[in-house]
């Protein structure tokens, strides 16, 4: 009887704690929306051509005036997003509630992902609850998530769909994983590399055939759906997918494309464009073979690759995979660059606006200042990727050989 009462009291405290965290996160987003929106919506670390809500609003007004939003170089999101937000842009408060709801739902989905993943790995109930709460807090209280929600970044929508995809993935639902994968690819080409994680997770021949067949069918259906929404016109292809691949907009962001293609000579541009775009594909086969027994970690690695090597990344791209890092607690003790990666990511959040101010506003710096900050951000993510991979291989070696004294393992270090 006493144990039962203690369990009820403990559950009540956990529920109250979750509710307080949720209220705090919502309050921070509302404060950022009221007091910081003019500053945040101009930040190139948060707003890129694909996720800019200001561009989306312009596109909706062009639609209302009977002008195709894809005739110029303003709109780079899918027609379906234009129509989804048409009814909301005239109601700012309703729009804020919608994006707040998206973020709260995303955090709860991430929490569910943690619970399902840890249950599948036989974790204790106490550990599951602790880690799941930590995952939710990592998303809700992340300053990048707060800022992205405050400026109505379309990355909030993409993160919600990504979280749903991962939930279907860890639950082992082939159909829903395939549907959500297709939606992600339709919104942005780069999530197409998630097909590697799907094929590793669902290894049966029938499942793989189903994934490939359904993905193609759904993608074609979504392409035609956007075609009809765009007034039976294919010109949205040039403004979305071709725009991502051609990289003509060299507005600075946290990626590595803009700086290089500002500097490169035009007659070399096509060659290096192919090199940069193919670069993300080079790692797929080695990672898939190395992590063939851990599809979830492979998916985590692919999310990091997308955050680093897309043509127009924003800091919001890293939110989902950073929130899920507590699920890899067993690898943490093998991290070699954890302090450097974490410190670099935190410093970049502060340093990037300062470098931008020095370069663009005061003129006391140049493009190298801002690129140094963005390059640090990319390198920190690569260090995190290598740490996760190294930790997994080290743990696998320890388990396979039954090693109890890990100090006897030879480790190659570069200093």
TrEMBL record:
The chain crosses the membrane at residues 20-40, 139-168, 174-197, 209-229, 271-291, 297-322, 334-356, 368-393. Pathway: Glycolipid biosynthesis; glycosylphosphatidylinositol-anchor biosynthesis. GO terms for cellular component: GPI-anchor transamidase complex. It is a multi-pass membrane protein. InterPro entries: PIG-U (IPR009600). It is found in: Endoplasmic reticulum membrane. One of its GO terms (biological process) is attachment of GPI anchor to protein. Keywords: Endoplasmic reticulum, GPI-anchor biosynthesis, Membrane, Transmembrane, Transmembrane helix. Belongs to the PIGU family. This is GPI transamidase subunit PIG-U. It comes from Wuchereria bancrofti. The lineage of its organism: Eukaryota, Metazoa, Ecdysozoa, Nematoda, Chromadorea.
């Amino acid at each position: 009887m006493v144990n039962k009462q203690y369990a009820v009291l403990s559950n009540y405290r956990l529920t109250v704690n979750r509710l307080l965290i949720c209220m705090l996160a919502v309050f921070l987003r509302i404060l950022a929306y009221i007091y910081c929106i003019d500053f945040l919506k101009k930040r190139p670390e948060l707003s890129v051509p694909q996720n800019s809500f200001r561009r989306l609003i312009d596109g909706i007004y062009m639609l209302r005036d009977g002008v195709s939003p894809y005739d110029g170089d303003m709109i780079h999101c899918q027609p379906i997003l234009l129509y989804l937000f048409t009814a909301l842009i005239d109601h700012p408060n309703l729009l804020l509630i919608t994006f707040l709801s998206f973020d709260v739902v995303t955090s709860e989905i991430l929490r569910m992902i943690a619970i399902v993943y840890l249950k599948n790995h036989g974790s204790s109930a106490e550990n599951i609850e602790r880690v799941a709460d930590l995952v939710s807090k990592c998303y809700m209280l992340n300053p990048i998530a707060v800022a992205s929600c405050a400026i109505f970044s379309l990355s909030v929508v993409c993160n919600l769909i990504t979280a749903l995809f991962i939930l279907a993935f860890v639950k082992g639902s082939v159909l829903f994983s395939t549907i959500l994968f297709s939606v992600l690819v339709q919104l942005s080409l780069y999530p197409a590399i998630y097909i590697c994680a799907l094929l590793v997770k669902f290894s049966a021949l029938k499942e793989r055939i189903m994934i490939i067949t359904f993905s193609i069918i759904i993608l074609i259906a979504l392409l035609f759906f956007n075609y009809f929404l765009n007034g039976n016109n294919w010109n949205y292809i040039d403004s979305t997918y071709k725009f991502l691949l051609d990289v003509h907009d060299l507005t600075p962001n946290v990626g590595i494309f803009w700086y290089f293609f500002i500097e490169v000579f035009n007659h070399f541009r096509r060659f290096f464009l192919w090199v940069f775009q193919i670069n993300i594909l080079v790692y797929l086969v080695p990672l898939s073979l190395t992590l063939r027994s851990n599809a979830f970690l492979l998916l985590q690695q692919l999310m990091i690759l997308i955050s680093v090597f897309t043509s127009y990344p924003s800091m919001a791209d890293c939110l989902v995979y950073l929130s899920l890092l507590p699920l890899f607690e067993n690898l943490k003790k093998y991290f070699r660059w954890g302090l450097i990666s974490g410190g670099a990511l935190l410093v970049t959040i502060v340093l990037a606006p300062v470098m931008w101010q020095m370069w663009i506003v005061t003129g006391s710096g140049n493009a190298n200042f801002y690129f140094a900050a963005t390059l640090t951000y990319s390198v920190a993510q690569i260090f995190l990727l290598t740490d996760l991979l190294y930790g997994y291989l080290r743990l696998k070696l320890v388990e396979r050989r039954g090693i109890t004294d890990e100090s006897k393992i030879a480790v190659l270090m570069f200093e």
